[in-house]
Amino acid sequence: MPLLNKKPIGRREVPPNVKLTDKVYYLEASNEIFTNYDEFFERMIQLNSTLFSCEYTGKTGLTYFEALESEKQAMKALGNFPPQLEQSILFLVRNYLCRGRFEDLLNDVSLFMKDRYFIGEECSYVDGTQRIPVRITGVHVLRDWQAESGNGKDPQIPPPEIFRYSLEFIEGNTHPDADLEDDFEQSLFDHTCLHRARSVASKPKLKLFLKNSCVVRKGRYDIKEKFISDIDTLTWESACGGPPPQFPQTPMLQRGRQPKAQNAVPSTSSTPTALEGTSTNAEGVFCLEPLWKGCRSLQR
Description:
This protein has 300 residues and is of the alpha+beta class. The protein has 2 domains: 76 residues, no CATH class; 158 residues, no CATH class. It contains 10 helices and 15 strands. The strands form 6 sheets. It has a 4-stranded antiparallel sheet, with no helix packed on it. Strands 2-1-5 form a 3-stranded antiparallel sheet, with no helix packed on it. The C terminus is likely disordered. One of its GO terms (biological process) is chromatin remodeling. It is found in: Nucleus.
């Protein structure tokens, strides 16, 4: 539903006293009925004004009809997002990322996915000029890798060269060389032999997926409540595999100026401090007599 002032546009209810013989004005775009032409005309003007935003992409400055089309395209893109990538990305966001800015979250996930493939993911095996649809059946690590301690400013991600992948052909596909087909599923391949289509997980599509899968919770982006029960049953090995990465933690900062700490201990006495050259009486009232005497002596 297109948003107006960040809220779903309210649809007018059919007046309860409308009769079948009454003259009404039907607005097909919003599926509304009006008994007054002026109200019908005002609604039509509103729907054609650039006051709306897309619920899924957050794009603003749209008419009602443009926002509807934007939501339609967004839903289509989300429907084509690979389920296995969804699982791995949501597990990463839930357990390894702590970002208060959405752009930082998007960059971390995009960097992690670059030249990285996951168990169950469907991609293409590149053989010369041919691309054969395959499925990742296993992730193998050639050597140990650990994140450097003390480096908390930049993401630390295992290099793609330490991974090898076992593959299987997706149903209906075979190796072009029949003699090599039997050994294919027994072999291991590096990331340069594989290809993930840009249309599958491009950065704009990844941004759309994260926007509709994450919310801000406790100062950081976390996955929505409806995903938590499924994602919390996963482990790193089942979701991603290999040595885990290390990302900077930059939660959302609290807005507003914080009060400065008081260095001096406040006085507990309610009596004002006397100025130099003055005195106080028993009731704590300032007396200027010493200063006055000094002035009279100077005049003499």
